[in-house]
TrEMBL record:
Pfam families: FolB. It comes from Pelistega ratti. Belongs to the DHNA family. Residues 7-118 form the Dihydroneopterin aldolase/epimerase domain. GO terms for cellular component: cytoplasm. This is dihydroneopterin aldolase. Pathway: Cofactor biosynthesis; tetrahydrofolate biosynthesis; 2-amino-4-hydroxy-6-hydroxymethyl-7,8-dihydropteridine diphosphate from 7,8-dihydroneopterin triphosphate: step 3/4.
């Protein structure tokens, strides 16, 4: 059995162009992205060589790029795009759990959003 690890991001805050309402089409809004990635260990890490582990800076860059490169109307579409990209770009990733929330969507709750889950 191959040992696994979990890489996670809590409340990655992005200014995104997302939504279908008129005010959402005119301006960006804050979204939060939470991600958990189950990965196979890549072997014994070398403390002096970042290439011996999955560099979470690259994961962060991928998430930001997908979430900010164009206007997306639906959170459902953005979640699927990010999930697919993480599985496609990082062979070590075996499972993605992704949550996207919009904190300004409603005044009577802290946030609303969706959670996505996919495995290879």
């Amino acid at each position: 059995m191959t040992p696994t690890q979990k890489i996670f991001f809590n409340r990655l805050r992005l200014d995104a162009r997302i939504g279908i309402l008129e005010h959402e089409l005119r301006a960006t809004q804050i979204i939060y992205i939470d991600v958990e990635l189950d990965i196979d260990e890549m072997g014994e890490p070398d403390d002096l060589d970042i290439s011996t582990v999955l560099d979470y800076r690259k994961i962060r860059e991928t998430i930001i790029e997908e979430a900010t490169r164009q206007h997306i109307h639906l959170v459902e579409v953005l979640g699927r795009q990010i999930t697919r990209r993480l599985l496609n770009d990082f062979a070590e990733v075996k499972h993605v759990k992704l949550r996207i929330s919009k904190p300004a969507a409603f005044s009577d709750c802290d946030a609303v959003g969706l959670e996505f889950s996919a495995s290879r």
